[in-house]
């Protein structure tokens, strides 16, 4: 009898070990995080806004960059008559691009997330967003984008201003976020000038010449002197997560240090 008992009890002990893979496998394969869009810089072609069944089409000078699971966009919003810019993290869930904003032109953001349907096109991509909130308003937006470039440089990434030193100004509460990627750059910034809150944004092309100098050429900005201007920056990586850039502004040197986000 004692020889029979182990033979009877062994299957009862081993059964859970056999069933475990069948339980865990679906969880592992449930989410597809494959990117549906290449890192790069994109320019807005048009946007259609649907509200209460009515469709309105808009054209605006706007750029968006995706790189290293980060995003940034910026434009001047004629409807609100102010700078409209934002940045944050991205990840893909079963073909849907999820954007999690962390800052905009007014400061830090929390607890926001947007699910974007991205459809690649010959020119670039189409982006669809349902239920976008503007106060009590809710709208659906469909945006057409064209690819500007998918080039990369060693400076690519999302950078937050850590410190600023200027020989020519004494602006207070200076804040800036900058994203470099796809051979382009976008920044937005805010500051206090003589007691007044000032907000700016700008975007343009970004390249590193043969001598290692960074050359930025402004395309659009609320800073008039940047539009169409070519600026040479002394930009260097301090380490993987820190960068500095120096440039001349109105005859005075400005040095800004950044930390990678």
Number of strands: 18
Number of helical segments? Answer: 1
Profile the largest sheet: 8 strands, antiparallel, barrel
* Basic shape: globular
Helix content: under 10%
Terminus-to-terminus distance? 69 Å
What's the alpha carbon Rg, rounded to whole Å?
25 Å
Low-confidence stretches: 1-24
Main-sheet strand order equals: 1-3-4-5-6-8-9-10
Overall average pLDDT: 88
The topology string of helices and strands comes to HEEEEEEEEEEEEEEEEEE
| Structural class by sheet pairing and helices | mainly beta
Strand content: over 45%
What does this structure look like?
This protein is 10% helix and 62% strand. It has 261 residues and is mostly beta strands. Strands 1-3-4-5-6-8-9-10 form an eight-stranded antiparallel barrel. It has an eight-stranded antiparallel β-barrel with strand order 11-12-13-14-15-16-17-18. Strand 12 (172-181) and strand 13 form a beta hairpin. The model is unreliable at 1-24 (pLDDT under 50).
Task: Give a brief outline of the structure.
The protein is mainly β.
Please specify the SSE layout and strand pairing.
Layout: H1 4-28, E1 40-51, E2 54-58, E3 63-67, E4 70-77, E5 82-93, E6 96-104, E7 107-108, E8 114-120, E9 124-134, E10 137-149, E11 157-166, E12 172-181, E13 184-193, E14 196-208, E15 214-221, E16 230-239, E17 242-249, E18 252-260
Antiparallel strand pairs: 1-2, 1-3, 1-10, 3-4, 4-5, 5-6, 6-7, 6-8, 8-9, 9-10, 11-12, 11-18, 12-13, 13-14, 14-15, 15-16, 16-17, 17-18
Labels describing this entry:
mainly beta; eight-stranded antiparallel beta barrel; 1 helix; 10% helix
């Amino acid at each position: 009898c004692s020889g029979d008992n182990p033979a009877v009890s062994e299957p009862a002990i081993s059964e859970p070990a056999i069933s475990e893979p069948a339980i865990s496998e679906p969880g592992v394969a449930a989410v597809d995080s494959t990117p549906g869009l290449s890192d790069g810089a994109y320019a807005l072609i048009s946007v259609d806004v649907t509200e209460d069944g009515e469709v309105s089409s808009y054209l605006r000078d706007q750029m968006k960059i995706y790189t290293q699971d980060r995003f940034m966009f910026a434009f001047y919003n004629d409807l609100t008559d102010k700078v409209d810019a934002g940045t944050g993290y991205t990840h893909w869930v079963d073909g849907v691009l999820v954007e999690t904003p962390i800052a905009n032109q007014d400061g830090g953001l929390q607890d926001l997330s947007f699910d974007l349907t991205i459809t690649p096109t010959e020119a670039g991509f189409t982006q669809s967003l349902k239920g976008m909130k503007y106060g009590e308003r809710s709208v659906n937006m469909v945006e057409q984008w064209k690819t500007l470039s998918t080039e990369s440089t060693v400076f690519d990434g999302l950078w937050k201003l850590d410190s600023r030193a200027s020989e020519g100004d004494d602006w207070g509460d200076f804040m800036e976020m900058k994203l470099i990627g796809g051979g382009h750059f976008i920044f937005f910034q805010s500051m206090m000038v003589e007691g007044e809150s000032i907000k700016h944004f700008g975007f343009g092309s970004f390249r590193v010449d043969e001598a290692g100098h960074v050359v930025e050429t402004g395309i659009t900005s609320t800073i008039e002197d940047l539009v169409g201007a070519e600026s040479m920056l002394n930009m260097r990586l301090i380490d993987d997560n820190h960068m500095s850039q120096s440039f001349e502004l109105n005859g005075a040197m400005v040095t800004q240090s950044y930390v990678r986000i």
